Structures are given as C-alpha cells and as structure tokens.
Batch of 2 targets.
Target 1
Amino acid sequence: MSADQVIIGLEIHCQLDTRTKLFCGCSTDYRDDGPNTHVCPVCLGLPGTMPAVNRRAVEYALRVAKAFNCEIPEECEFSRKNYFYPDLPKGYQITQYDRPLALGGHIVIEAEEGGEKKVRLTRIHMEEDPGRLVHRGGGARARYSLVDYNRSGVPLIEIVTEPDLRSPKEARRLLAKLRATLEYLGVFDSEKEGSLRVDANVSIAGHDRVEIKNISSYKGVEKALTFEITRQRSLIRRGATVERETRHFVEARGTTTASRSKVEEHDYRYFPEPDLPPLRVASWLDDIALPELPDARRERFMQQYGLSINHARTLTGDLRLAEFFEAVAGEDPVLAATWVADTLLGELNYRDRTIATVDPIRFRSLLSLVGSGTITDRSGVEVLRLVLDTPEEPASIVERLGLAVTGDDAVATAIAEVLAEQPQAVADYRAGKGAALNYLAGQVMKKTRGRADPREVGRRLAEALAE
Ligand code: ZN
Ligand code: MN
C-alpha cells in the first residue's frame, strides 16, 4: 500500500420497505403525515409494552444477506444499545451487537483503475430507526427541540464494509450498486427521503482515521469524502496530526466539521434484549428465491439485445430504468439503448426528473419515428423534449412542426439549385477541396430548412457532383 493511500470503510443504514414497523403494527408510510401520528405504546416505549419482531423485515434482511453471499449464523440476537438522547423514547435502541444476522459476504463494484473489485462486508445487522429531532432557534444553540416519533421503530439494516474502498468514487459506486441490488430485491425504496444514511470512516495510510457521521445523500458521500481527504492530506503535508475524531458533514457547504461528541465517548452498555428471544432463521434461506440481480441483468442485456457494456451497465444500474428499457426495446434494442442511456437520461437529469415520469408508450412511438427514418436524430431530440414537457403525441408533434424528412424530390431540387448558384464551390470541390462539399451540403440543408437527413444529403450531393 502506497504512503498516501486512501482507506475508506462505510456503515450504511437502509430502511427496509415494509408496511409496518420492526416491533409494532404502526405504518411506515409516515412521510406525508403530521408529527407523532404513526405511534403506539410499543414504539413510544411505554412501560409494560412488549416488542414483537416483524417477520417480513427479517425476511427482507435475509434476502439482502443472501444476495451478498453473507454467512448466516444458526442463531442471532437483539441487544439494547443504551444512550440518553430523546430520538428514542425508551432510552435505548434495539439493535444487534455481538450476534448479528449476517457475517462476511461482499459487493462487487467497478474498481477505480478498471476491472471488477470485491468489497468485503464485515456484517449486516437489523435495528430500529430512531425518531427525528428538529432543533429550533438556530443551529447548535437551539432554544428548544421538537421530536417526531413517526420514524421511530422503522426497520433498518446496517451494512458494515471492510476498509476496502480506495477513493470517493469507489464509495459512490458501492452505494449505487447497493441501492440497485436492494431495489431489485424489492426491499428498499431509494426515492423515499432519508431511506439511506451513511457513516464513513476515512484515513490516509499510516495515520489515524476520522468518522464522518450521518451523510444522507448519495452525492453527499462522495463530496464529504473528497473534502475530508483533502483536509487530512493538507494536515499531513504541514506536519500536523490527523486527530482521531468524529466529524459531521455540512451538506450545504460541502465540508466536515468537528463534532463536540468527541469528549463524551459513549459506553453503550450493550446487553441482550430480554423481551425478545434469539432468532433462528438460517433455515429460512432455503425458501428465499432471489430475483435476477443487476450483474446478471447486465450480462443478459449484452447477450439478448447486443448492447455495449457501458449501455448495459447504465441501464441495469437502476431497476426502474432497466424495466423502462425493456418496455421500449422493441425491434431495435440498440437504438432504444442509445436513446434511453445517452439522450433521455440527459434530458431527465436537466429537468431533475426520474424515469418513472416518462410514458413508455409515447417514447416508443418516438423511437419508431427515428428508427424508420421518418425524422432525423436531431428532430428526434426536439420531439423528445416536447414529449417530456407536454402531453402531445410524437406523431402529432412531427405533423404540427413539419419535421418529417423531406422527400427525394425536394432534396433533388435543392441540390440542383445549389449547384447552379455556387459555381465557385463546385469548382473548388472538383479541384480537390473536400471541405467545399460540407459547404454545399450546408446550403442544401438550409434550402430544405434542416428537415433533410444530413447523411442522405451528403451522399446524393457527392453523386450529383460526380456526374
Ligand atoms: Zn408503534
Ligand atoms: Mn446503527
């Protein structure tokens, strides 16, 4: 390992997309509702209540463990993590400590230097999500705090990686792969706000490591790590020491700041949860059938549709995108892949929209207009923008704007006119100046008001000049 090698490990919390919470029957669909409307005596931690494990949540966690080739111990157990912070009303979090659900396993990503790389997992355990605190009256010196227990008790899995990542880019790729896999498994919804939170451990080889807490966006992870690596390298260059500490990511500024909790190193006094028996779920694995996962789908897209690895990778990197592609692939899947991966995604990104907002039927009509040569690629982009921004049908847009490729006669007339009007350019071309052809083609395109197919114009112009 080189002297300034970056070493990154992640702890990733993902909300499992179950209907109800981990230890009670409260609905997890709380995001549009008022504070403290999805609570009951169990998730409020009232005395005398007993938790009961949500079977579906355990099954979801096992699906994830199986997909990443983890080892499932015969028996696992919940523990209490004790701390005094009001985001959990009980005064402790039910989590797993020394006997987690799953050990080992790995996630395959594309390595920074190319090729594939296995990022090892330390463990996957289950725990309950804490509630949400809202501080009022300004930052750290808030005058008072409000607490909302709607989220309290939502099932989480915490996935801990070994320190195998070597750059912020690899960290981003790992999260993208994780997100895609969880969505293929049907256990996670990345579009729900706050459904994924990441803590990142980062160090430069030979120096102490820093933990960055609670990064809540995919882009945030790469930004936070990039900032932190620059900060640590500059300390080392100046001969200063990298302090072993916990820092917070300030999303708005893209920086990390030291958090005060450094002085109060926690002793969580873990002990086995006395209200829940140990779980013996290893045998459930046999009944869990995994669906086609992103890597397998990528291979299939290359085999079945003849896609390039880059298109196949892009299109399978998101479940909804993969499904959209298959819905529009039609007779010319390579054309469809190009339009979806290269053109549509760019237009969606620009509009800050997701693939779920695109009507596959209208998109397919657009593809057949381009595929049949009815409109040029350039007009296709124009039609696509209108398909995204208005409810109009592609055929009607083409008709209304007169975008259909002009028929042979009009091109022939335009070529004849241009050749008559531009004797100098014609002479230049015949004298061997190839660039004159582009000029003449431009004049023909102008006369046909850009509706002719440029490749067709070039070919026929060259033919006419050869006569
Ligand atoms: Zn509840
Ligand atoms: Mn945790």
Target 2
Amino acid sequence: MATWSAPGKVFLFGEHAVVFGKPGIAMAIKPRVFVTVRKARQANVAKSAYIEECFRLTGVKGSVYVRSQLPSSSGLGSSAAVTVATLSAINDEFRLSYSREQIAKMAHSVEKKVQGRASATDTYVSSFGGIVFIAGGAKRRLPPADIQLIVGNTMISHNTGKLVAHVAKMKESYPEIVEPILNAIEGVAMKGIHKFQAPKELGMLMDINQSLLDALGVGHPQLSRMILAARDAGAYGAKITGAGGGGSMIAVYNKRHKNKVVKAIESCGGKTVITSIDSEGVRKEKE
Ligand code: PMV
C-alpha cells in the first residue's frame, strides 16, 4: 500500500495571458489531495476518469482511496493534484521508478487526455510545489516566499476550455484591443515577481491584473462581489485565480483584517480557505 499527496495551486498573475506565450506566476497552496493505491488482482471501479487514465497509462491494476482537501472544478488545480498523487502512489506501490519530472509530464498527458486540452502548469506546480514562473512553455521555480492568501471559492464550476476559447475569439476579433491587454498583464506579472515580500504592492498589482481579466470578459458577478467585498474589508488586493467564469478568487491581506476579509467573502456566499505557499509538491505520506 502507498499513500501520496499533492497540493493545489493558484495563479498569482498572468492566467489567460500565458496561453498566448506571456509570463504567468503560479503558486502551490497547502490544501492537498491524498491518494492511497494498493496492488489488487482486479482493479476496482475507478473514482474518476483521471484515476482510470493513470492506471491505463502505467498498465497496472490496483485499488484506490482518495481524500481531498480541494474542491473540484474550483480553479484550484484539484484534477492535477489527484493525477499527480495517483501516479506517484502507483509509481511507489509498483516500484516503477519514474522521476518527479516524468510524473509531472505523465500527469499532463493524463489531463490532456481527459480534458481534451490542459496546460502543463497545474501538474508541474502540483509535482514540484513552490512558486513557478511560466513563459512560453518553459517553467522555472522561483525562490519560495511567505505569501499569505485567502482563497474564496464561488462554488460555481467553470469550464476552462470555453473561457480560453472565448479569449482567443476576442483576440481574433479585436486584436488592437486585446493585445495591449495581454501586454499589460505581462507587465503586471513581471513587476509582481519582485513584490512577493511586499503584500501592499502585491495586492495593488493583483487589482490591476483583475481589471485586465475583467476586460477580457472572464469575470462572473459572484467573483466580482467577493473580490469587491474582500477589498472593502481591508484586503490589500484581490483577483480571480485561474480561468474565471466561476471558480475561485484570491485576496492578499493585512493580518489585522484577516477575519474581516474572511467574513466579507463568506457573507457574499463564498467558501474560504486561509492558506500560504506549499514548497514541497508531491510527497509520500505515512501509512
Ligand atoms: O482555472 P484553471 O486552474 O484551469 O486555470 C486556467 C488558466 C488559464 O491560463 C486560463 C489556462 C491555461 O491553460 O493556462
């Protein structure tokens, strides 16, 4: 029997713009998915298409038990975390000797197979943890920083593929408007890299990134309510994380206002998690 766990993720800056080769910054967060795999002569019915695909890819048979601290379809990378943890538990239980890099790549192929399209960001961040700088397909881990966040989940599921297609369509129809927006998102992300230790400025940059995402039409009234409420309650800044159209938002906060910000988001119907960086990535758990 082998139990492994993998973390979720948020986008600090640059979602959607990364699809067009602009830089993005993602960070692994503390909530995890735990997966236990046990050798079995007969596979039990897989709990998800992701898990099924992990077994198909590795060609082994086993039973699986999943426990998750991450809500699904919330833009927090839960499917990537399930996939990375499942592949790692299979790797361990069946002594397949895949490296962490290989696990990250295999997890990306599983996500692509199941979702039709998937970026490698979620699976990379979940495998390696920390803060990851993405630019034109390349990924680099940045030095870890003590970034404290409140995550607010709208509980409205979103379809990343549809939102990505919407932005692509807008870019095609209005290049003279959308390209400067993407360039501005790039500017924000590049400034953001230097502000991880400066929550006030980090928050201000997140607010700008949020306005630009709204301009791309990937907002949602519920996200806007939660973001405005968080700012009103004293957050340094707040924005969508991930594809938008539902899913989750993040807020950077001043410790003095933490409870007020949490209450404000919840009073709009959001579900909150107070979290910070996970710098471990996928890890083996005690059985
Ligand atoms: O909502 P999520 O976690 O699927 O994030 C999507 C991020 C996008 O930039 C919109 C798409 C991508 O592939 O990077």
